[in-house]
Design a protein that fits this description.
4-stranded antiparallel β-sheet, globular, single chain, alpha+beta, 95 residues
């Protein structure tokens, strides 16, 4: 099992309960591929460096997890098409 960090930016155009539902879907995806979440850092609403889909702000989350080597490729394909997710990045953390 490797340690990863998922940086996730969720749209500000959706309601709060819809944003929580998107976060729950992401948690379920991680669990489905065999990962375990160790920490979720909610950074809140922040200004982005540049506009994405005509939005200047987004809700930022940083999720630390342990998962098998093939897990990021499996859940990235689902994140790519998930409604409400503006951007994401999975980075392997060194020991």
């Amino acid at each position: 099992m490797n340690k990863y960090e998922l940086a996730l930016v969720i749209s500000t155009r959706i309601e709060d309960d819809a944003r929580e539902a998107v976060l729950e879907k992401v948690k379920d995806l991680i669990a489905k591929v065999g990962g375990t979440i160790s920490n979720i850092d909610d950074q809140g609403r922040k200004r982005m460096a540049y506009e994405v889909q005509d939005m200047k702000e987004g809700y930022y989350y940083f999720i630390q997890m342990e998962a098998p080597t093939e897990a990021p490729a499996k859940f990235e394909s689902s994140l790519r098409i998930m409604d409400g997710v503006i951007r994401y990045l999975v980075v392997r953390q060194d020991a």
